[in-house]
Description:
Chain A is mainly beta.
Amino acid sequence: DQQVKQNSPSLSVQEGRISILNCDYTNSMFDYFLWYKKYPAEGPTFLISISSIKDKNEDGRFTVFLNKSAKHLSLHIVPSQPGDSAVYFCAASDNNDMRFGAGTRLTVKP
Amino acid sequence: GAGVSQSPRYKVAKRGQDVALRCDPISGHVSLFWYQQALGQGPEFLTYFQNEAQLDKSGLPSDRFFAERPEGSVSTLKIQRTQQEDSAVYLCASSLAGTGGWSPLHFGNGTRLTVT
């Protein structure tokens, strides 16, 4: 039962351009949505979150957009940098139950 | 450091052996989670503690899996009679919030279990 889906396993972007990572969910009870970044051999690191009552949250180069009617969220990174290369996990939380997508591997080419 | 610490980093077990994985959460964090991450997949929820109480163990795949957090701090995930399908990275995460609140999860670097 995959409640959080990331349909793109990988994405390659040129340095300086925008990276857009997408995520879909099925459970309308989720009230927080998060993005985590993961480097090899490390645990996921929290990147940015958005409450279900908002449609946009921005933090520096990172912006998360939430479309509740479509049950869709996206992470925009602009401008992309080579250090952003990592696996990005979308997560959704219903009280203390947090579910993760399968991840998207972002490669930012110099 | 002040992060979530997991040990061992790597564990190789022969099929049928018992293993114990340890998690030291961030001091003061109320909530503690265990996740299982198979290769190429996202973390899959196993179980959740609020202080010493195990509030949700619905993700534990079988009764061979057991988790405890007796004093509301360090937690141990035990897997009895390991099987090859148990091979995965086991992630522990803690957060400051308890019931009714929300805060991001802070993950450890995981324990990679390989069952041969």
